[in-house]
Amino acid sequence: MSGVVVVGGGLAAGTAVTVLRENGYAGPVVLVAAEDHLPYERPPLSKGYLLGDDPIDVVYLHDRAWYAEHGVELRLGEPATAVDRAAGVVRTAAGELPYDRLVLATGAVPRRLRVADESGRPVSYLRTIEDARRLRAALAGAPRVAIVGGGWIGLEVAAAARAAGAQVTVHEAAALPLLAVLGPEVARVFADVHRAHGVDLRLGSAVSPADLRGADHVVVGVGAVPQTALAAAAGLPVDDGVLVDAHLRTADPAVFAIGDVANVDHPVLGRRVRVEHWQTAIDHGTAVGRTLAGDATAMTAQPYFYTDQYDLGMEYVGSPGLAGYDRVVVRGDTREPRFTAFWLRAGTVVAGMHVNDWDAIDPIRALVGQAVDAERLADAGAELGALADEVAAG
Ligand SMILES: Cc1cc2nc3c(=O)[nH]c(=O)nc-3n(C[C@H](O)[C@H](O)[C@H](O)COP(=O)(O)OP(=O)(O)OC[C@H]3O[C@@H](n4cnc5c(N)ncnc54)[C@H](O)[C@@H]3O)c2cc1C
User: In sequence order, which ranges of the chain are alpha helices (DSSP H)?
Assistant: First the structure.
């Protein structure tokens, strides 16, 4: 019996092997990871660990003993070099690993930026434990930090660099940070928060070599590229990620793909989506773990993510997609900041978020995907929980 081989050492892979065992899968399980670390999650690398508040240990899903106790064989620091689907084996430098079912959880890597790489300045990208260690050390000794990219990682690093006492400049080509995700109404809040903390935001033009000349350290956060090479070389369909169905199955029924690398035909959203977020890695790992343990589980959850920057915590649910939205409803005070925001398209909530209003997340989850009365949603006097209950009751 050859069992399940999981390729990857991140949150998706680690969740998959955990859920396989939790759901009673009794066959062999092997986890093959390129990085020489126990499976780990990445959010603390740009938050608690980078700020110096948390030790690195917070990132690991389990200690080493857990894998031994649960019969999960770890092949760490041993990248999978090929998948031979006809023979049903994964190849590594150490040999061949046979599988009945294969899970690809190879994640994504930072997109490189030439203007930074050729700047002559020390440059950081942030993805791995080693990247975070180097960046944390660099921030401690860099008075002037230039960050390229006003996305989630760039802004979280900006907050950590300010906490370390650096003079921080963020270069973002769009007119506002996070503009493509949040739209102008809410992206402005993030711009204001960073300016209030002394970050110099340079918006609306691509970064030039001259912009980076004065920096002691450059950090690049301009997106990530899914690691599809293994799947593509094995002849599996790839298009911005490995293409999978709602059960996370590739064109080969014995091969699955999960997490950042998976481009899913999402049954609730009604379109393909590739999501690079923590909760999605957990949801995919959970769904595939259950499916392979015998309980076929589709990926139906709406995308969810969170961020922490300074004293701003936020959670976001949904995915407006390319069709976008035609109305934004903001409830609460965006200057405090403590508020909720909803994005609607043709009367349906396509996304919702809160900033520093943690009780709101359950009603937000209940409202996303539902048709609502936008005027009532906009009415500050109408309680959010009651609106969610009404929608649930039909
Ligand atoms: C610094 C940082 C902060 C983040 N913060 C947040 C946050 O606050 N909120 C949020 O929602 N999301 C956040 N994310 C995103 C989140 O971490 C990712 O969505 C998540 O890591 C995806 O998990 P994954 O297992 O799919 O991929 P990954 O974590 O990328 O893991 C994939 C692993 O597969 C390995 N691998 C690749 N190829 C092979 C091979 N051929 N053989 C063996 N192994 C291979 C890689 O080395 C890697 O270790 C953050 C990401 C980063 C980098």
Answer: 11-22, 48-51, 64-69, 114-117, 129-140, 152-163, 179-196, 209-212, 229-233, 278-292, 361-367, 374-378, 384-393
